[in-house]
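Notebook entry, cofactor series.
This is the third protein in the set we're modelling with a bound small molecule. For this one the ligand is nicotinamide-adenine-dinucleotide. I'm keeping the input format identical across the series so the outputs can be compared line by line later. Sequence and SMILES below, as received.
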Amino acid sequence: MPASAAGAVRGRFAQTLAIARRAWYNEEKRPQGRAACVRGGPRFPLPPARACWGLYLKLLVTGGAGFIGSNFLFYMREKHPQTELVCLDKLTYAGDAETLAPFCGAPGFAFVRADVADGAALDAALEEHRPDAVVHFAAESHVDRSIADPSVFVRTNTAGTQALLEACRRHGVERFHHVSTDEVYGDLDGTEERSAEDAPLRPSSPYAASKAGADLLCAAYARTYGMFVTVSRSSNNYGPYQFPEKLIPRMVVSALRGEPLPVYGDGLQVRDWLHVRDHCAAVDRILRAGRAGRVYNVSAHCERRNIDVVRLILEELGLPLSRIRHVADRPGHDRRYAADASRLREELGWEPETAFAAGLRAAVRWYLAHRPWWEHILSGEYQSAYARLFAPGR
Ligand SMILES: NC(=O)c1ccc[n+]([C@@H]2O[C@H](COP(=O)([O-])OP(=O)(O)OC[C@H]3O[C@@H](n4cnc5c(N)ncnc54)[C@H](O)[C@@H]3O)[C@@H](O)[C@H]2O)c1
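Returned structure with ligand:
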């Protein structure tokens, strides 16, 4: 083929690719299926396998072996099976490669074991996989651990986010979504208010401060370098695969092991609960339709006192309230968080689908039915799963 004809074909191919990517981001307008390539797609010859709308998007998901990241990978595989997924995770104590066993050997899935604070490793991963978008869940996420040792939180959550932003900038990644928390707004004790996205950041714990630092770096990269960055600030999540150090799985596991249920202080701290699947749907929506440089709160506006959540768990398990044991409160413990998700609802049409009572019941039943999952976490055995499932040359 003469060079000019080859150039024209390449140009058309690139044009098809660009249209398909735009269509992925704007799913509502995307024709479905292979026939759509002919009906609704461009009118020139298409390479057979990858030409259909939506096939081109490749997402790199950091922290995909953790609670929300793994739920997000499952959600994406179910909702958008043609999207290629790359999970980048360091596999800290909170990352369980075993959770991702269903992806082992699956086409369109890759696992990279790397630290988000390691620029060279990020360069290698981005060079090899060339994702269209990065969704950044990886973090140290447990407040108590941040009180015991803040330094790893600053390294992973703040410096790690900066390293990832910088690597994405160098490699021209089209979109960067950062997953943050409503804890950056700090304590709303004594008010009825909900924090909107422009509320001041007043983090209380080292965890929340390290996340707030990351949020500000995202804003700086969007403004200074014109990167397409979005941020979501979610309220407390619950659901399957949550590490059993967090309130709901911890209480269920303690109850099932016949131990007392340890409740901090008077237990009257108010948290705003969101089912993890609703969070995943929100991130998906923001990734497709969110505006550059924008922050979106994610909340089902579902406030519950910790003590009431623990009572509901005991009720669901048919156990007496006498199992509750009040223990010394966490230093600096915020009394109330509540984020206002009107922007996400009004701009992007997101609505949570899971009512708290039903979602909590389902979560409790999931931990009951998946005893081997949390038993192998508690035993530490899960830390060998990577070598078995995803290590190169396994
Ligand atoms: N869990 C919640 O209720 C909640 C609420 C709001 C926001 N968030 C945010 O959502 C994100 C995910 O939270 P989660 O509860 O799933 O956390 P998690 O602790 O369950 O999982 C974190 C994951 O990140 C990985 N990771 C940690 N350090 C890393 C590093 N340096 N490099 C690469 N990978 C690393 C871990 O191995 C793990 O797989 C976090 O950014 C958190 O701040 C969580």
